[in-house]
Amino acid sequence: MTSRRHRRDAQREAARLDEPVREAGALAKKLGLDPYPVNYWVVNYDEMNQLIAYGGFQNRYPHWRWGMTYDRQRKTDQFGMGKAFEIVNNDDPSNAFLQESNSLADQKAVITHVEAHSDFFKNNQWFGLFSDEGDLNAAAMLERHGETIERYIEYPDVSRDEVEKFIDAILCLEDTIDQHRSIREAAEDRDERIPDDIRDQLKNLNISEDVRREVFDDEWVDRVEEAEREAAKITAPRKDVLAYIREHGMRYDEETGKAEEMEPWQKDVLDMLREEAYYFAAQKMTKVMNEGWAAYWESLMMGDERFAGTDEFITYADHQARVLGSPGLNPYKLGKELWEYIENTTNRAEVADKLLRVKGITWRNFTEEIDFDEVQRLLATDPVIDSVSRETLDDLVELGPDDPRVDHKMLDRALSGDESVDVDTYPWKVLSYEGLAERHYSLVKPQNRGFISRIRRSELEQLTRYMFDDTRYDTVEEAIADVDKTVGWDRMREIRESHNDVTFLDAFLTEEFVRSNHYFAYEYSQSSRQFRVSSTQYEDVKKKLLFQFTNFGKPTVAVYDGNFDNRGELLLGHQYNGVVLDMAQAKGVLERVYHLWGRPVNLMTITKEFDDHEVEVARRRGREPTPTEHAIRVRYDGEEFEMHDLDSDLEERIAAGEIDYDTKPDDWL
């Protein structure tokens, strides 16, 4: 009975949402978005929590972590620490799941949010790294993986505990992939097979000791070993640790006490989970961009374009305020503010470009000669575009048949009485992309007044550097009339195609943005034993953010040697960037990596040690103590851990200093 009642409730909710889904998709396309088709599904509270636990999909492989994630999400909602309004997955078509208990205002907000997410999935190149491998059908891929792993569990000679233990080991390394390349390209960096111990091979040959001494003397064996070591040497760190273990990893057989070849099912599971790691990588790499993009277009559609009805707007405003007001590093808020800043600066540059072409205006006298109040008045939206209703359709006609701001086909339908073109509810239907760009032009919004006047002389000088026709207009009015009001949105779509969070922050988080939005950096103080504001300088804030988003915010670990010390041991290196590893967690990971390698494993890293006296002196003097850095190698042989000093040449190799911002904070500041 409960199941049938739920189905009826879901069907009623789906029927209620039919129009918002259809119209939100049409509005998104009018605004220049190009999303995947989206299938919307109405689910209940428990189903939503299960989908969240499964990462947005209905079917995953059997594993204990899904239950843990489900329980955490249920408690988060139960105790008022965060409600899930929707979840959408990157697929073609995308699938979005709406909770049936949401209000209509929340459902509309979710739908507009989802349309923007789907546009981002389809058009961002980092998502394309995976989908370019073939037709994107992620749901089918994950379901296939789940069914395959389920079958392995049912094998009579394979236990569920054994499969889950193997999956646990892989999941410890799921972020140690080369996320800047496709899964196919990352796998092309193969090296020579790690050589087996030649002395062991000779023992297995059926030859006499005299022949062995005569033909295969120790000098010859040493030369062969050295040659094989050179052939197998990794010339550059292998970032795709999972791929390397797939090529060379073994398993420790407790019965024989030796490393044995992985079972076929183990290699298959490793391949599947590595594929899933590459699939989810783009979402981790673009969290700020993607959530900010969705929040921006949701806000424009729901608020500025009045997709939220009059009786729904307060509920929606409260919903978005809670999302954007969440404490800590909030990707929705940071991302939305950055997209708005990009829109504003692009529009400002377009206005300045036109004004610098007015006779007598130069970058030197710009701020003295330009009347910014007059510019603001001239930029104001045409009232005919700003206030569209059924009563004002004749005003749109008077703009003329060639006015690019009007969707003349839809206007004709509205004038002919086509009831599907409800202009009072959806005024955007009779406007084109150009018309909507003017209708929502960022520089005329109240919160952005004065933005043009804040332009710096350096920016003006940069604009004139390659300007040739700098006397195109006789008056400011002529120049403003020629301003292209679509450039902000056009530029945003260009950026959406090519960037990830690290490059996005690097390129667009400027001093002006940091100051106007009141961002600051904070850190844990060793002397005061609490967190404190460390800087309000934009360079420090920017570097702190870049550091936090590099490699998904996780330690960067790569393979440095698969035959360390010529003993078949794995040597991993933590690319040190000033932040030390949690050694307890690092040891736990090594224990699991040993399960995948079958032989001893090593991890190079750098630790920090603080002298108690130095800490006390620093506390009294109001400064931070200087730590002593110590390069070490942690070795695990399946039973115990050993700590070794790291050779200087290896220490140099793990010092991160590439363009991906793996640099020490001391170098930044």
UniProtKB/TrEMBL annotation:
Where is each SpoVR protein-like N-terminal domain found? 15-353, 481-553
Report which residue ranges the record marks as coiled coil.
none
The record's annotation in InterPro entries points to: Spore_V_R, SpoVR-like_C, SpoVR_N
Ranges for the SpoVR-like C-terminal domain?
Answer: 555-606
One Pfam family of this chain: SpoVR_C
What domain of life?
Archaea
Q: Give the protein's recorded name.
A: Stage V sporulation protein R-like protein
